[in-house]
Amino acid sequence: MAPPQPSSGDEGAFDIVATYRRLLSEDPDLTMPVAAIESLIVGLAKTPSTTVSETLDLVSKLTAKLKSGVSNPISLSAGTDLFQQYLISNLQRARGDFEQARNHLVQNGRLFIERAKAARETIAGFGKHFVRDGNTVLTNGGSRVVGALLRNAAESSNGSGRGSIRFRVIYVVSHSATGDSAEESETAANIAALRERDIPVAEVPPTAIAYCMDTVTSCFVGAEGVVENGGVVSRLGTYQMASLAKAAGKPFYVVSESHKFVRLYPLGQSDLGIEQNIVDFKTAKGSEETESAKDEGVADLEGEGATSSRHSCTPGDEVDYTPPHLISGIITEGGVLLPSAVSEELIKIWF
Predict the structure, then answer these.
(1) Residues 6+ away with beta carbon under 8 Å from 240
(2) Which of 98, 135, 148, 261 is the most buried (most CB within 10 A)?
(3) Which keywords does this chain's UniProt record carry (predicted)?
(4) Mean pLDDT in the chain?
């Protein structure tokens, strides 16, 4: 017997934020955009709709709830925007039985998720060719796709018949006050996996990047989002690393799945749409911003009961924007792109 279906308008009963967080916790290999798409598919399957307009409205509402429920929605926005575009282009062409067309879309969405999950190994296969015998690689954070690339390189033949590629890795490691963040756990797992494969790994603090740069052959970083102009949004400190690599004449590669390409065009660090409070001026009275608000008697700068369009980033999850002129190439499952090619790829996806 089929399970009972919720009545129309029950989208409020489905907690998309809780679903998104559960999916990420259950599958450590899941990226944020894919988790967002999977959450929308679950919501679509659990909440009935009878017309194209109802379906698109449902997905739009679920997307808004998800974005407002996380501190930094940049990465997941790539997934939700992609899924919405997929629905619009396919539902508008639907003919005949709407329910059948809707179920077909949900099923195809799940197939997309499986392909997206497989992208990491494809990228590792492309990227391993950028690591050669005797190289010293600089990277930061717990990017799983960078970890896969380096593990793949460690297991690859060096072409001389004398064994696998031998290289060294310098990991830039930041420690939080608690020492138990997800980023630190993923970084530790990447380092342990490389050392198990006899790859020497050094751990250095962010303040030692410039000191190490003379010994570095190339840099590899992950991304939370690849933006329209070919720049990237990634963990805080990536911009610093890219700037130092450029000054030292060292190639700087971004390793990212194409489902992280996002329709965002920042002009600088303050254009990301999130409040990070990284530069927090304080006096003996406390934070300058807080004191200023108190002095003016402002309880809510955007009006009582209003919801700010800017999200407040959780400490430890801060990001920065690296402009395209600092990036040598973007390694994706479709091949290696120049930053200037990202806008064309987005046009292919959206139009």
Answers:
(1) 206, 209, 320
(2) 261
(3) Cytoplasm, Initiation factor, Protein biosynthesis
(4) 83
Phi, psi of 245 (to 5 degrees): -65, -40
Looking at the chain, how many residues does it have? 351
Read off the tokens for 96: 């005949």
The residue with tokens 């379906």 is 55
Q: What is the pLDDT of residues 179-229, one digit of tens each?
A: 556 778 889 999 999 999 999 999 999 999 999 999 999 999 999 999 999
Reading the block at residue 232, the tokens are: 């990237």
Question: What is the rounded distance in angstroms from the CA atom of residue 75 to the CA atom of residue 78?
Answer: 6
| Cβ-contact 257, 120 below 8 angstroms | yes
DSSP 278-321: -S--EETTEEHHHHHHHHHT-S-TT-TT---SSEEPPTT--EEE
Tell me the C-alpha distance between 168 and 170, whole Å: 7
How far the first Cα of the chain sits from its last, in Å, is: 42
Residue 226 belongs to what H/E stretch?
A: strand 225-226
Q: What is the pLDDT of residues 8-43, one digit of tens each?
A: 445 557 899 999 999 999 988 888 998 998 899 888
**Per-residue pLDDT reduced to its tens digit, 276-317:** 888 888 888 887 665 555 555 444 434 444 444 555 566 667
